[in-house]
Structures are given as C-alpha cells and as structure tokens.
Amino acid sequence: MARKEGISRRRSKTGADGTVSVAGAASIAEVEGTQQHPLSKLHLSPNNPRLGIQAGQIANEVEVLDTIVNVFGIDDVLSSLAVNGYFEAEPMVGVRKDGTDEIEIAEGNRRLAACLILAGDKRARNQKKRTEDYQALQQKHNRRPITDVPVRVLTDTKSLLSYLGVRHIAASQPWDSYAKAAWVSKVLEESNLTLEDVSEMIGDQHQTVARALEGYYFVNQLAVAAQFTPGDSYRPGRGSNPAYPFSWVYTALGYGPIRQWLGMAESGREGKDKKPIKGSGKAAEAAELMVFLFGNRTKSRQPAISDSRQIADLARAVANTESLRLLKRGKTIHEVAQLLKPAMERVADSLLDAQESLGNALAPLSQGDVKAKEAAELLNPSLKVRNLANEVNSKIVSIIQDVEAK
C-alpha cells in the first residue's frame, strides 16, 4: 500500500466505555499535559466538523454556541454538569491560539458550550432561560459553579487532525457522514496522511470513508461551479448538514449506471480526486442528478424520487435514453415507470385502479351514508365517469371486432 514518507501505522481501539485509544499516541503530537484552565480562556471552534456545512462560516462564538444548542442539543450535558459537576477524567482537548494563553477547543465543544451556559458567560447570552434553570438545579445539588475545567493542550495542530479524526470517526457516537468527509478532507489537506492511512487507522474495510469523501468532493465541485446550491434542496438533511441528505449523494455515486452516465472513473478510485466530474458537459449532467435527488426550489423542479430506496430505480432510469429524457422534463421516477410500461400493462393497471376506486365510492352509497342533497352534487361527476367507462369499453370491443372482421 502506497503511503507518504514518514507515516507509521496506527490502529484505533474502542474500549468498553466507548472511548477510543490510539496506539502510538505519543508519536502523534506533543502534549503539554492536562491542566485546569479558566472558561474565559477557552474558545469554541468555528471550524468544528460537527458544524458540518456551517463550519468556518459562523461569525462568532455566540452563533457557534447557539448552533450547537439548536442542532445537537445541550440539555443532557447541562443536567449532568449541574447534578454531578465536571468529570475530571474527561478533559477537553485544544490548541493554543498563536502562542497566547487563549485555547481553541478541538474536542469537547458541546461540553464547553454547556459550561458557558451554566456559568452565565456572555457568549451564552441567548440561552438565559437555560442558565437560570440549570443554575437552580446546580444549587439544589449543592454544586459549586464551574469556573475552570481540565484541558489537554496539543501543540501540533496538524497532528491534532489525525488524533481527533480517529477518536470521532471510530467512536461509539461517531460524526455523521458529512462531518466525517469534511474532517477527512481536512486531514488529507493539512497532514501527511493518505486516504489509505486514514482508512486503516479507523478500521474502515468497506470504503465507507472513501465513498463519503468522493461525495463531498462531488458536491463541492458543483457548488464552486454554481451548479448546485444546497439551499435549493426540497429534501432536508439532518445533523451537520441540514440542507440536504448528503448520504444520498454518495449512495447514488455507488451505482455503475450513474457513474457511467456522468463519465466518472470506475469504482475503486473513490475519494482520490478532488474534482471527480470531468468536463463542462458532465458537470451539467451532475447538476441534473442533484435535481433528481433533491429538486430545485429556484427552478421550481420537484425531486424525481421520494426516498432513498428509489435511488436504485433512478440508476436504472438514467441508463435508458427515453427515461432519462422524461426525468429531465420533470417527471418523477414513478411517472417514468408508468409511461414506459407496455400499452396493455398501462391499460390493465388503470382499469384495476378505476375498479378499486369505484368500489370505494360504492360502499358508503350502499350503506346509506350519503344524503339526498349530497347525492345530487355527485350526479354530474358520476355521469362523466359512466361516459368514460362506456367509451373505454366501446374502444376495447371495437378493437376485438376489427380483428375478428379480418
């Protein structure tokens, strides 16, 4: 397996408590040690991968804290801190900011957010109700206010990437797929690790990280080229990427017909190319895939599929010229399937649907559930249905008679 110079193999191990230890951790980064640091010197990270699509775009720590509260929840941590105090055996992990005594927290941002709320810090000014409620709980249990917490300070920022990546990607409560992909992308960019190194470190034997990373690169390439705007998606996501369901992207790219349609490299190269889409023509097709998956609010185009189970049907559809044309015209995968059925099958299905619908209409009429005044309103629609039924029957009889006459 190819790897960059100077990289030693490290494996992660998950203990009974769900924590992850990394063999050879001393070689990963120099450590100042775990010491108590005042909350005033600790800072929430705007680049926290758990923030997903918002990472690096949030202006200040007030917004970071509010995002953590709104997206990931904080009440469970607040309750634990108020009742039990801070667990000293679980230090936060951070890096000093430009040689100062200020520390940006890389691991433990949710815990720090909870501490700031409980302390009534100005960065938690939008969480006053929580501050009041949990300070009361803290006083009820005779717990001292939390002013200092244990922090393990790492001095090597680049090595921190691999250290935390292993902990969170392999942990018992891992990041979601978008956060993982964003983190791995940053690791590969800022360290001397390869994709193979990262995959081996976290024990990924099914190319899950590679597939997610390819999806991440795919979406970013379209976004940079103004071919995809996350906010245009009709289909919401969750976790670190609430704009659209990111897993649908790399799931779709896992199908051969879709890769062939987009002119992408064969499977086995996932995550190796930051620009997996080749050529402007294919970029337009890739943008169509995003519309098929999520729709486009700006263009008022609905998605072609309603849930992830239909991605396989979509893959089969793009392999057919006629069905692909219908999809591009705004048809759903269900509508395409109906339109491409043989005529006999379409007619038979329609007759069965009509029979079922008329049976449902007949039941309340037979049971006397419809009053005379209401029945009068139904007369015209029923006549139209009768006329259509007669016309369909006449056409079928005419076709049979024409054949017999010959």
Largest sheet features:
5 strands, mixed
Low-confidence stretches: 1-31
Order of secondary-structure elements: EEHEEHHEEHHEHHHHHHHHHHHH
What percent of residues adopt helix (DSSP H or I)?
40-55%
Shape call: elongated
Number of strands: 7
What order do the strands of the largest sheet run in, or round the barrel if closed?
3-7-5-6-4
- Give the N-terminus to C-terminus distance in angstroms: 73 Å
Number of helices: 17
Q: Give the structural class.
A: alpha/beta
Provide the residue-averaged pLDDT: 86
Please compute the radius of gyration using only Cα atoms.
29 Å
Query: What share of the residues does DSSP label as strand, in percent?
Result: 5-15%
Please provide a written account of the structure.
The protein has 406 residues and is of the alpha/beta class. A 5-stranded mixed beta sheet has the order 3-7-5-6-4. It has a two-stranded antiparallel sheet with strand order 1-2. A hairpin with a 5-residue loop joins β1 and β2. It starts with 11 loop residues before the first strand and ends with a helix. 32% of the residues are buried. The N terminus is likely disordered.
Short description:
The protein has 406 residues and is an alpha/beta fold. It has 17 helices and seven strands.
List descriptors:
406 residues, alpha/beta, 5-stranded mixed β-sheet, two-stranded antiparallel sheet, 52% helix, elongated
